[in-house]
Amino acid sequence: MSKITYPLNSLTYCRNCLNETFGMNLQRKDLYIYPYPMKCHRCGESKNVICKARFPYNIVLQSKINHMPDLISKL
Ligand SMILES: [Zn+2]
After folding, report:
1. Rounded to an integer, what distance in angstroms lies between the CA atom of residue 63 and that of residue 47?
2. Residue 71 CA to ligand 1 centre (angstroms)
């Protein structure tokens, strides 16, 4: 069985939405952010959107995403 992974950047979420969705408390320094504001797909506001997370949060988030089929279906 092949395991498909859904990268964090396909969520297009701002940091607030990311923390609320995954029950985390990620800080700016834990994340890579796009250099320009983008529309967050959750709150709909133009914000600094997360491109990816630093280790080990990238692993944690990837694991959480892969266990959230409802979320994946919206990507
Ligand atoms: Zn948001």
Report:
1. 25
2. 14
pLDDT in tens, 8-41: 888 999 999 999 999 999 999 999 999 999 999 9
Token look-up 């959107």 returns 49
Residue 3: inside a domain, yes or no? no
- Ligand 1 centroid to 16 CA: how many Å? 6
Number of domains comprising the chain: 1
Domain residue limits at 13: 8-70
User: What is the C-alpha separation between 1 and 66, in angstroms, rounded?
Assistant: 14
Which pTM does this prediction carry? 0.85
Determine the distance separating the centroid of ligand 1 and the alpha carbon of 19, expressed in angstroms.
Answer: 10
Residue 31 Cα to ligand 1 midpoint, Å, equals 15
User: Is position 23 within any domain?
Assistant: yes
